[in-house]
């Protein structure tokens, strides 16, 4: 626990809460660490108070937005969590992590905003192609929405535009046109 969490607990034991002015003496990172420490000590009410002070003081801080969104998810306030995560992703810009997107997708999914979650999932996939957690979220959303996904295809080892590949495909097409058992006709 850091100095801020200790001070918060100390004041709470005498029935006081730290003011925003007192909290302003700490950096966003120190506030995030204090919130995390308070949660670990099961002092979520005090942690929530620091979240509110942190958001009031540093509304654009990635540290504060990240911990505030986690706290919103912990209390299952999916709308607030989604809003905070969107702001976090905006602040992170091109440096937004796949996990920021994944947490937003999950918050939207929990809020039953499946179409919006799918849209965010597609955006995440464009930024992080073949990321296993993004792919997993896509599969979950596809299942929820009733989409059929393509089976996992083996890696292509040949150049699909190479002349020999094209010739082989033409041979397969010719056989399927002639042989009713192969073509299914």
List keywords for this structure.
mainly alpha; 185 residues; 11 helices; Serine Threonine Protein Phosphatase 5, Tetratricopeptide repeat; elongated
Describe this structure in words.
The protein has 185 residues and is mainly alpha-helical. It folds into two domains: 3-155, Serine Threonine Protein Phosphatase 5, Tetratricopeptide repeat; 156-185. The chain has helices at 3-13, 20-23, 28-40, 44-57, 62-74, 78-92, 98-110, 114-127, 132-145, 163-178, 180-183. α3 runs parallel beside α5. It is elongated, with a radius of gyration of 25 Å.
Spell out the blueprint of helices and strands.
Blueprint: H1 3-13, H2 20-23, H3 28-40, H4 44-57, H5 62-74, H6 78-92, H7 98-110, H8 114-127, H9 132-145, H10 163-178, H11 180-183
